[in-house]
Design brief:
The chain contains ten helices and eight strands. A four-stranded antiparallel beta sheet has the order 4-1-8-7. Strands 3-2-5-6 form a four-stranded antiparallel beta sheet, with no helix packed on it. The C terminus is likely disordered.
Length: about 375
Amino acid sequence: SLSISVNAAKGLTAAKLAGYSDVFCVVELDNSRLQTHVEYKSLAPVWCKTFLLPVMDIHSAVYVSVYDLDKNHKTELLGKLCIPLLNIESNTPKWFALKDKKLRGRAKGNCPRIELEFDLKWNFLKAAFLTVNPKDEVYLKKSEKFKRRLLNNNVIRIKSILAEMKSTALALYSSINWESRTWTAGAFLVFLTVTFLFELFMLPLVLSIVFVQKYVATMRNRTASGAEEGELVVVDNREEIDIDKEDNICFAKIMQMVQDAFPMVQNYLGLVASAVEKLKNTLNWTVPFLSILAVITLIVVSIILFFIPVRFIIMTAGSTKFIKNLIWPGYVTNNEVMDFFSRVPDDEILEDSRELSIVGEETDVLVDKSKKLL
């Protein structure tokens, strides 16, 4: 379960011409959605409201949104926040900088921020079990429409992945052609040794060693980078492409077909990029809980493969899939590996949940004010 206290907010932008806003806060977790009362005529509202939310998946994220309410009961977003549950620090009140609608840049206002306090209770073994089981569907999630920005972003992600694959292919090609004789000779000797001594149980063991190596490299990179934080780039606000109605029915049908095809292309590009990014983030220890779970699983699989023949493992796994539906009719057959990777965040989710600094923004505001006075 998750207990979240929405204490207060500061530095919000004035949504009304009179220089104030009628503010309330909305907290969302999977299919749960709760909101505070409205603080009228305030840019620094104080709610002191505590919510208790059920946690169905430890890999979910909490979305906190601050809105302005007008006389016609219409709302205007003043700031938004995305916090993964695994990044939460319990029983510690903390100020979070609010972001814009796309969760890429800062929200408007004088360093808009909100004070939250969390109390998260979860079990490691239960979370590990749920990680390799199907993920619950989120019904509050909106369906994806065609967005030019999203399509361009997915194309850029695919290009970066292809560039990395191309560099790897060029490295293999240079090795085969003996462009660097020393390196190629060493690689050739390693290839012969590994091929001669390779056993199936060694494969997951080698993968677990790769995880450890990536963990050491990640720790070194974090130490080298220090406390530097890059600013998030504000993206273009142009999103949806509207198709004008035409008198020509045939032309309208063609345009409708094109419009229906674009979201499919956009989403498939996003799925491919997301799959590769999830694999990369698993190796890079972006979510330590998932990487630890992967290492433990790989070591256990290595031990099993060492002592038990592969044919018996396949027979046991296949029989389990058949017997489950016999014992529990209606049981949903799942793929544990796919369920695991569905919990790994891709680069887009990491960018959404990236926390902005507050001290730096306050300093920038003070500098801007001093420049105006001078």
